[in-house]
Design a protein that fits this description.
The complex is a heterodimer of chains A (955) and B (399).
Chain A: E1 4-5, H1 8-14, E2 16-20, E3 23-27, H2 33-39, E4 46-47, E5 54-55, E6 68-71, E7 77-81, E8 92-95, E9 111-123, H3 127-138, E10 143-146, H4 168-179, E11 185-188, E12 191-197, E13 201-207, E14 218-230, E15 234-237, E16 249-251, H5 252-262, E17 264-265, E18 269-274, H6 277-289, E19 292-298, H7 305-313, E20 318-320, E21 322-329, E22 335-342, E23 354-357, E24 360-364, E25 366-369, H8 372-376, E26 380-384, E27 389-395, E28 399-401, H9 411-430, E29 443-444, E30 477-479, E31 484-485, H10 486-494, H11 500-507, H12 520-531, H13 535-538, E32 550-551, H14 552-556, H15 573-578, E33 582-586, E34 589-594, H16 602-615, E35 618-621, E36 626-631, H17 635-642, E37 655-661, E38 667-677, E39 680-685, H18 690-704, E40 711-714, E41 719-725, H19 729-736, E42 752-757, E43 760-765, E44 774-780, H20 784-795, E45 801-803, H21 805-814, H22 848-851, E46 862-869, E47 881-883, E48 896-904, E49 909-917, E50 926-931, E51 934-941
Parallel strand pairs in A: 2-8, 9-10, 9-14, 10-11, 14-28, 16-24, 18-19, 18-24, 19-20, 35-45
Antiparallel strand pairs in A: 1-17, 2-3, 4-5, 6-7, 6-8, 12-13, 13-14, 15-25, 21-22, 22-23, 26-27, 27-29, 30-31, 33-34, 35-41, 36-39, 36-40, 37-38, 38-39, 41-44, 42-43, 43-44, 46-49, 46-51, 47-48, 47-50, 48-49, 50-51
Chain B: E1 15-21, H1 25-37, E2 43-46, E3 62-63, H2 70-90, E4 101-105, H3 108-123, E5 129-131, H4 133-139, E6 155-159, E7 163-164, H5 167-180, E8 184-186, E9 191-197, E10 200-206, E11 211-218, H6 223-229, E12 238-249, E13 257-260, E14 265-269, E15 274-281, H7 293-306, E16 314-325, E17 332-335, E18 341-345, H8 355-368, H9 382-385
Parallel strand pairs in B: 1-2, 1-11, 2-8, 4-13, 11-18
Antiparallel strand pairs in B: 3-7, 4-6, 5-6, 9-10, 10-11, 12-15, 12-16, 13-14, 14-15, 17-18
The chains are: A alpha+beta (955), B alpha/beta (399).
Bound molecules: flavin-adenine dinucleotide.
């Protein structure tokens, strides 16, 4: 007889049926899958990741190293511990054998992200956590209590031991019920804090198994807490011996937990083996639940008299100074017996062993405080020989510990610590000076817990392995998840490794999804033994978040699809879509690249659009250009330092082209600056750089020149902008703004007017990026779409043609105007691209000093040139490299590259811009443009191809 | 049978011909090549923590040489050639796998810069191809090449000879080889300052006492500037957290390395089965070796968008290293204003791939007291001369 239910009727009543590995099993809804499997006598659940050995349920919760499953029924899970899958009717799951497989077809369940702030975050809802949360909330703090499981209670659920009189359960129930009545206390169940980060940030994963279909199956919480109380309990530690991985070997506390919480007996006949009193008490509970004890072994020569007496009363003797040396298996590799031998304090057998039949081997080497969260942000632990455990020694600032995490095992002690920690955390959090947790200096981990159970308790022993002379160390599993053994550790140590971090990497111990919860301290103990060092001398590996695996879908949340990076659209976007525009991504913006008509490809559409701009009228949606208001008494001085040219000398009402450089003198961005009034400027930036430029200005203003009075505001989204372009643009604008004098004498180039356009308040700039007469009309974004429609209507008699970025780039390239990101790449100075005229020699500006460094000032740098392919039909590839002669064997010296390349309607041929070494002095020369395997001859020219005299800009 | 130890635990001697500070891959490789190629065997590598426990133990192991500028192509391709020999040289399987690296292009700007880099690589004799979205899909069937992707895949550069190698095995292989040649590897020995005689450095102060040295080489990544500071030498380095992460072990889904800068995530699946991913630095400076979770969220959102199947995988572990970033994001290698003091730092987010190359070039520089030709462009004085080597704008993700 193996596992079963203590009260079989109860399960049938509940009536849930699940399927595991294709087999139908009765289950109780809400219980963990591990309990269902044990209750149904399913012993082999999974197999070793490398060894293919059968593995069963080993633990009770997050420490489970063996029983990994996948869930096939919706919402699906590629990997979970059977101890953490909540059962419901219709659940379908299967063993995870070796590696996980990602299901291709299935949509992953979605997750949501939530944010919360609190005074005190309590992690863990056992007695310590419940007491801490209640105390903190009663003291007036806003409290979040994160409870890993579906119900609060922790290890106390179903516990018979008394807490100051009443049974643990009697103590727990009213307190859990009262949690709901405490104002400002919020309980989050099924919520695991997976990471603590600096400045009091905690990340927590909440599972929502009952979410409606399509609802979020996970929530990822970002919690900002002023104070954190870690009531995270402890994980039980096994003892390693040969064959300790067989299905049927289980942590003693887990075996008890299945009885207490789920009424499930993990076996029929058990051997219990431990080295501390709780393991003996576990034997008592297993016996009382109806499991026959064939042997109880304790590594200590003198175990605690109380549990020994309790067992004696039940007719069970305790084999002292004894340990399990190996196990035997029956059919399917399941446990059927254990050999117990006398051992010394190091776990070496000192005599012959005896076999005991069993289908359950409940083993316990002690309890390891769950300090990983604290360790993630610099907390430290120290070995306590008295507790045979690492206890928290130094905690991150703002953090406290309470309960079993401090080594306090009795529930009453945990509760008292919790109350104290809750009070103290609330007091700190509510004191006026409190900063967030995680800032300031670290805290000592409070006084060691009262040696509690203290005085009359027999101390635990620290025991890592039990071996005899015949032990096969490659069958002594230390990390059951990674199939890593005592032999592996020995090999690493013999290879000269003395650091626990090296041993981890050599053996892979601790790298599994269980984060080595049952293997970490065991490994330290074994290594300490092999190297003859202290436990603290060996220490442990660094804690790396998350504490529990998080499905990627939960981390990604809803930042998928469109929302990966929310697209920015102009007010005219819908019009563009309706007209079949082909879009391109520029920064976060969606911009029309061209507007093809029936049967047109990009080249045809662009030729048509450009012709309209050069011969009639065309219109561009320029709303995406960055617009930054720079205001304040010192705005002019500020911009003088930001731009290479002067802006304080610009008269109100006028515009000026400006370039800005990084500190190393390279072009950062360019655009037109407008002086709206004495103390107000509007800087325009390229589409992709608005945010960079705003941040750049803020950085300089805040960190370098706090004395300057300037205010910087990004108003890009507040304005819609259209450029009406072409020789007939004046006629179009005349119809839009009938009151305005548009003559070139009255409305000069590089000035602006505030006026009404199509009945709407607007600002018109006379600037030009195409060389043609241009009116750039800005209206509040709200009116963008009506302005666009009005311009199209007004332009209809002139054949007004909407154009996109491709034509815009082509038109400016014909004029030799650069585009940041085409002609510049962070290694190009204003002088390189022919903008030396815009670089002031007198005033200081960012990057000035760098521009006069010897290499930056070299005459033979790569410089902007025009390029004419000798074959006028051939359009060069952008990104082609320029070389002096057709390339032979590499390495071939490169002299520059093609930055922009097009087929031009007005030139009637192809042309390109490029950067070429000493290019300014090489006009007329032939060079070769190399793209992949092809080299084509091109002639170097001046970069201005069209209207060199600039006659067209006034129309 | 007791195997030979990989390296032996040594007590520091009173002095060495050369002291290398920092036992990352670069420090170890420097010592190895000094001993192997230059006959300089009286060498100690001093490490303040555990051997190769800095960025060497934390990186995402990507190796490639398809950089834009000649100087970069020179040193990274030199390194890649040495990688191709390394397993033979060290007599150790370091799981060097030339499975190819793709750098995705998602915008017209990316396409232009990628094509430019491919052309530059080819002219420099570096294997480089430009792939269409269909060709990308053929190499990486799980990738989402739908035009509906927020930033659709418009193509990719591809270097077939690029790949990955197991960083621990590389470190241990170099350590073992150096140890065999007589180099002392000394862990738990922090360098705290220098011994000087005028403008010459004559030794180091350490947590385990003073150690004299004919020459000192700093290979301490982000801490190089901290150490140089004690000499009044200010290095233009900023140290940032850079994080990486792994998933659980998965059946094979990806047999090449795919990097994306615009949808910022890069990923490979190592032989063990985990997906290893990384993205950009955390914006702030610090030596904390941990970053913000929001960085991870952005990275994984990008990963799920590009590879929808990853939605089902689990995040197992995240960690951070401290990367030393110079103003042009290229390394600083060579001599210093102090006689007998050499530096190798500023490798930032991308120095793993250079491990053998950096060590080889630095060893030569130390042995001959003049910059190796491949190191010349990387001299410290480029920040005063302006001869920067800036790969930022060329969209070559620096990892
Ligand atoms: C998350 C992450 C991902 C990365 N991914 C890649 C990638 O995919 N490809 C790539 O090419 N590069 C990558 N890198 C970068 C790469 O890891 C580094 O550039 C490279 O490891 C630097 O090598 P190193 O030997 O100089 O540094 P490190 O390995 O950091 O070595 C420096 C050593 O110096 C020691 N030290 C510091 N101060 C002292 C002192 N005072 N005394 C003694 N010892 C000292 C440190 O403890 C450390 O061991 C990544 C980096 C990180 C952090």
């Amino acid at each position: 007889m193996s596992g079963r239910r203590a009260a079989p009727a109860a399960a049938e009543e509940a009536g849930a049926t699940i399927t595991f590995n294709g087999r139908k099993l009765p289950a109780r809804p809400g219980e963990p899958l591990a309990a269902t499997l044990l209750a149904n006598g399913v012993r082999t659940v999974a197999s070793g990741i490398y060894t293919d050995r059968p593995r069963g349920v080993f633990g009770l919760g997050a420490e489970e190293p063996c029983a990994y499953v996948r869930v096939d029924s919706p919402p699906g899970e590629s990997m979970s511990q059977a101890t953490r899958v909540e059962v419901h009717d219709g659940l379908r799951a299967g063993a995870l054998r070796g590696y996980a497989r990602l299901p291709e077809a299935e949509e992953a369940p979605r997750g949501d992200r939530k944010w919360a702030h609190c005074d005190v975050l309590v992690v863990g809802a056992g007695p310590a956590g419940i007491a801490a949360a209640t105390a903190a909330a009663r003291a007036g703090a806003r409290v979040l209590l994160a409870c890993d499981g579906p119900h609060p209670g922790g290890g106390l659920v179903g516990a018979p031991h008394p807490v100051d009189g009443p049974s643990a359960h009697e103590w727990l129930e009213p307190r859990i019920a009262a949690l709901g009545d405490v104002p400002e206390l919020r309980l989050l169940t099924r919520t695991t804090v997976t990471g603590l980060h600096d400045h009091g940030e905690a990340v927590a994963l909440q599972r929502r198994p009952h979410a409606a279909p399509g609802g979020a199956a996970h929530r990822l919480w970002h919690i900002r807490a002023r104070r954190v109380v870690l009531a995270t309990g402890a994980c039980e530690r096994p003892i390693a011996f040969e064959g300790n991985d067989r299905p049927g070997v289980m942590l003693a506390g887990a075996a008890v937990g299945y009885v207490r919480r789920h009424g499930v007996l993990a076996g029929g006949r058990a051997v219990v083996f431990g080295c501390h009193d709780e393991a003996l008490w576990a034997a008592v509970e297993l016996h009382d639940a109806g499991i026959a004890l064939t042997a109880v072994a304790d590594a200590r020569p003198a175990p605690g008299p109380a549990p020994v007496a309790a067992l004696y009363e039940r007719g069970v003797g305790v084999l002292t100074a004894s340990g399990v040396t190996r196990t035997t298996a029956g059919t399917g590799g399941n446990l059927n017996g254990a050999t117990i031998a006398p051992i010394d304090v190091h776990g070496n057998a000192t005599g012959e062993g005896r076999s005991f039949p069993c289908d359950l081997l409940a083993v316990s080497g002690g309890h390891d405080p769950a300090t990983a969260l604290a360790a993630q942000i610099g907390g430290r632990r120290r070995w306590s020989p008295e507790h045979a455990a690492f206890l928290p020694a130094e905690l991150p600032p703002g953090t406290r510990c309470a309960g079993a995490v401090t080594g306090a095992r009795p529930p009453a002690a945990a509760r008292d610590q919790g109350t104290e920690a809750g009070h103290a955390a609330a007091a700190d959090a509510l004191s006026a000076a409190a900063g967030p947790a995680g800032s300031g200096s670290s805290e000592a981990a409070g006084s060691a817990p009262p040696t509690a159970e203290g005085t009359n308790r027999t101390p635990p022993a620290a025991l890592w392995t039990v071996t005899d002379t015949r032990t096969d160390e490659s069958r002594v599993f230390v990390d059951l998840q990674r199939d890593a053994t005592l032999a592996d550790i020995r090999e690493a140590v013999e290879a000269g490794m003395a650091s626990i971090e090296h041993i981890k990497r050599h053996t892979t111990i601790g790298t599994g999804p269980d984060q080595g919860r049952t293997s970490g301290v065991l490994t330290t103990g074994i290594v300490a033994g092999l190297l003859g060092r202290s436990m603290d001398g060996v220490g442990g590996t660094g804690a790396r978040p998350p504490w529990l695996p998080i499905p990627l879908t939960a981390v990604a949340g809803r930042d998928i699809g469109e929302l990966l990076d929310p697209a920015r659209r102009t007010p005219m976007h819908e019009w563009h879509v309706a007209r079949g525009a082909v879009f391109e991504d520029v920064g976060q913006w969606k911009r029309p690249r061209y507007f093809p008509r029936e049967g047109e490809d990009m080249r045809a559409a662009v030729l048509r659009e450009c012709r309209a701009a050069r011969e009639g009228a065309a219109v561009l949606d320029a709303s995406t250009l960055g617009k930054i208001m720079v205001e304040g008494r010192d705005a002019g001085v500020f911009l003088d330092r930001i731009y290479t040219n002067n802006f304080s000398t610009l008269r109100p009402g006028r515009c000026r082209y400006g370039v800005m450089c990084t500190a190393d003198g390279m072009v950062l961005d360019d655009g037109v600056g407008v002086r709206l009034s004495e103390s107000r400027y509007l800087s325009t930036t390229t589409t992709g750089n608005a945010d960079t430029v705003r941040a750049w200005m803020e950085e300089w203003s805040q960190t370098e020149w706090p004395d300057l009075c300037v205010h910087i505001t990004d108003v890009t989204d507040n304005w819609a902008t259209i450029s009406v372009v072409g020789p007939r643009s004046r006629d179009v604008v005349a119809r839009l703004a009938p009151g305005l004098d548009l003559s070139p004498e009255d409305f000069e180039f590089m000035t602006f007017r505030d006026t009404l356009v199509a009945g709407v308040p607007a600002r018109i700039l006379r600037v030009s990026f195409t060389g043609e007469l241009t009116f750039e009309i800005n209206v509040p974004a709200w009116y963008g779409s009506s302005l666009w429609e009005a311009a199209l209507a007004a332009g209809r008699p002139y054949g007004i043609t909407p154009y996109g970025t491709e034509s815009m780039h082509l038109l400016r390239a014909e004029k030799g105007f650069i585009v940041v990101g085409h002609e510049t790449d962070g290694s190009v100075t204003p002088v390189d691209v022919g903008l030396g005229w815009a670089v002031s020699k007198r005033k200081d500006f960012i990057g000035k000093r760098s521009l006069w460094r010897p290499d930056t000032a070299r005459e033979d740098r790569e410089q902007l040139v025009g390029l004419l392919p000798e074959d006028g039909d051939h359009v060069l590839a952008e990104g082609a490299q320029l070389v002096a002669a057709p390339p032979g064997t590499p390495p071939v010296p490169m002299q520059g590259h093609v930055t922009s390349s097009y087929l031009s309607a007005v030139l009637g041929r192809s042309f390109a811009l490029g950067l070429l070494r000493e290019g300014r002095h090489r006009h007329g020369e032939r060079v070769y443009a190399v793209h992949l395997d092809r080299a084509v001859p091109v002639t170097v020219t001046d970069p201005v191809f069209y209207d060199k005299e600039g006659r067209r800009r006034d129309g | 049978m007791t195997p030979e130890p990989l390296w032996r635990t040594r007590e520091p001697a009173a002095g060495y011909d050369v002291v290398v500070v920092g036992s990352g891959g670069h420090g170890l490789a420097t010592a190895y090549y000094l001993a192997r190629d230059h006959g300089v065997r009286d060498v100690a590598v001093l490490e303040r923590g555990w051997l190769a426990g800095g960025n060497m133990a934390r990186n995402t192991q990507i190796i490639r040489s398809n950089y834009l500028w000649d100087a970069s192509a020179g040193i990274y391709e030199h390194a890649l050639k040495l990688w191709e020999e390394l397993e033979g040289d060290l007599g150790r399987d370091v799981r060097f796998s030339q499975r190819g690296v793709l750098n995705l292009a998602h915008t017209t700007h990316d396409v232009r810069e990628s094509v430019r880099r491919v052309n530059a690589n080819r002219l420099n004799g570096i294997d480089a191809e430009w792939l269409t979205p269909d060709e990308v899909k053929k190499l990486v069937p799980i990738i989402n090449t739908s035009p509906d992707l927020r930033y659709p895949v418009m193509g990719a550069t591809y270097q077939p000879r690029a790949g990955i190698a197991d960083h621990d095995q590389v470190a241990w292989g170099l350590a073992a080889a150096a140890d065999r040649l007589g180099v002392h590897l000394i862990e738990d020995c922090e360098v705290t300052g220098f011994q000087r005689s005028g403008d010459a450095v004559t030794g180091v102060q350490t947590s385990r006492g003073p150690i004299a040295a004919g020459k000192v080489a700093l290979c301490a990544a982000g801490h190089t500037s901290v150490l140089a500071d004690t000499l009044g030498l200010r290095l233009p380095l900023q140290s940032h957290p850079l994080q990486a992460l792994v998933t659980q072990l998965l059946e094979p889904v990806l047999d090449t390395v795919v990097m994306s800068n615009t949808v910022h995530v890069y990923v490979s699946q190592v032989d063990k089965g985990e997906l290893v991913m990384g993205a950009g630095i955390d914006g702030y400076n610090g030596y904390g070796r941990r970053g913000s979770f929001s960085t991870i969220e952005h990275e994984l959102a990008a990963a799920v968008a590009l590879y929808p199947i990853f939605a089902h995988a689990h995040l197992l572990r995240t960690w951070g290293g401290i990367v030393d970033v110079s103003p042009d994001a290229s390394p600083i290698i060579g001599l210093t204003p102090f006689d007998g003091l050499y530096i190798n730092c500023g490798w930032g987010t991308g120095g793993y791939k250079a491990t053998p190359g950096a060590g080889h070039v630095l060893a030569d520089t130390i042995a001959n007291d003049r910059p190796h030709p491949l190191a010349e462009p990387y001299a410290l004085d480029r920040f005063t001369s302006g001869a920067l080597i800036d790969e930022h704008g060329a969209a070559a993700v620096a990892h």
